[in-house]
Amino acid sequence: MPTEHYQRVKTFMEKVGQETPTEVVVPDEHTRLLRARLILEEALETVHALGISVRVQGQEANIDSCEFTPNKPVDLEGVADGCADISVVTIGTLIAFGIEDEELLREVDEANLRKFTFPSSAVA
Predict the structure, then answer these.
(1) Nearest Cα to Cα of residue 67 among 76, 77, 58
(2) 44 near 61, Cβ under 8 Å?
(3) Which run of H or of E encompasses 70?
(4) Cα distance between residue 91 and residue 1, in whole Å
(5) Cα separation of 34 and 16, whole Å?
(6) What is the pLDDT along the chain (124 residues), one digit of tens a residue?
(7) CA-CA distance, 119 to 105, in Å (whole number)?
């Protein structure tokens, strides 16, 4: 069962003519490129709103090849907007792949919380 947020994003995607499959699929290259650009665009806008510049020097980008410099003022409105936009584009990517969000998000949340759950016998 998808979340209400998922349903709203799906409605938006349908209104702008994007595919919203009902079964798990691997979208075509055009769709994958669009989703990658949207995710990176919103992530970089959010990072900039956090007051951080990011640079990559002539190599395939990965977290270790990026230089992060805190050199700008924080834009709280931009941070909030960016986080919401990231949610929209990532949920949209799940939709483009035909993957519902609620169960997936629950599993990820629970897995993250388990990292901090220790058996009572391990606590001394």
Answers:
(1) 58
(2) no
(3) strand 66-70
(4) 14
(5) 13
(6) 899 999 999 999 999 999 999 999 999 999 999 999 999 999 999 999 999 999 988 788 889 889 999 999 999 999 999 999 999 999 999 999 999 999 999 999 999 999 997 666 555 5
(7) 24
